Amino acid sequence: MKIAFFLLLIFISYNSYSYQIDAYKCKVIGGKEVQSNGNLEATGYTNHYTNTEFVVDKETGKVIGKLINSNPQGKPQVLDYGSPQQAFKVLTVYRPIVSVDLLTINEFEESHDKTFLFQKGSTIFHGLCNPF
Length: 132
Known about the structure:
By secondary structure, this protein is of the alpha+beta class. It is built from two helices and nine strands. Strands 1, 2, 3, 4, 5, 6, 7, 8 and 9 form a nine-stranded antiparallel sheet that branches. Strand 6 and strand 7 form a beta hairpin. The longest helix has 17 residues, at 2-18. Mean pLDDT is 89; it is low at 4-18.
């Protein structure tokens, strides 16, 4: 009986670990910038990032790829690691000239593909992420 219990604990521990997501690989589907009239529109700047990819380290929140969210003036901070009920959220505040990046990956979505929004100042990028 003790052996069965021990094997059950190992099985549960292994399955919990194997489903843990350590990183996401994301593909930018599009982006838009706020215009002087208040509308969101695709621009040459946002089109430059369409169909590019980036990787997000879930532990640190750091984004690596064509889009980034860290430099000597700003370090990412994970606000929520995500769950079946919550989105994964990372905030980066840059100083001394203040600007903000906010990445949200909808980890609670049941499909393998998770939608994301990545706000960089007044620019918004969107697309899909997969466990990596």
